[in-house]
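INFO batch 0412 | record 1 of 1 | parsing
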Amino acid sequence: MRKRYLPFGYQIEQGKIAIVSKESNAVRFIFEEYLAGKSLKGIADIMSAKDIPYHEGTQKWNQNMVGRILASKIYYGNVKYPPIISETQYNLAEKRRCEKHQAYSTILQPFRQDMQCGCCDERLYWHPKTNQWFCRRCGMWAKPLQAEETSAAIAEKLCWLWQNPEIIHTPEGQANVQSVEGALLDREIWQALTNTEPDVDALVAIARSFLHRAHTGGR
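INFO prediction complete | emitting C-alpha cells
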C-alpha cells in the first residue's frame, strides 16, 4: 500500500496543488451521502465497490477513511488547497458528527458502568470511533454495534427477563420468598414495560435493583 502525501482529491500539477476530478467527485459524494443520513460504514461499502482507491493498490475503504475526509476542513478550501465542497456542507457534516457522538454518549450512559467482559468479568469500555465494546484487561473486542442497537438489545433482554423470572435463582440455601418490596419492584417493571416507548434508563435502574434482590434472596 503506497502512502498518500496529499489529501484524497488532490495532486500536484506544474508545481501547484490541483483537484483530481475523479477523486473530488468521490469527496462530494461522501459528503452528500453522509448529509443524507448514510452511515460511515455504509459509505465505505459503496466506495469499496467503486473504482476509486483511497490508497494505491487497494480498492478497500473503511469507515475511518470516510471519517477522515468528513473531518478535514481543507475540502472547503484555503490558501493552499482549492475548494471541493462548500463551507456550508462541511459545517453541516461536522454538526451531524458531533450530534451523533453526543447521542451515543447519552444512549450508553445508563449502563456503561455495568457492561462486563464475557472472558474475564472485568468492566467493558465503549470505543465510539469503531462502535465496539472492549476489555482493557484481556484485550477482548466485541463486534461493531451501533449504540442504538446496544440500547435496544438491552431493553429487549430486560423485557425477556421479566417475562421469564424462573431463570433467575436465589443462592442455594436461601428462601425464595417475594417480599412486599419485591412485589412493588415487580409492579414497577411491569409499568415501565407497558409504556408505548419504554424508558431505557428507568428499566436499567429497576433491573439493577431486581437482580440485586435476586442474588441476595430478596433482602
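INFO post-check: The chain has a mean pLDDT of 76.
INFO record closed
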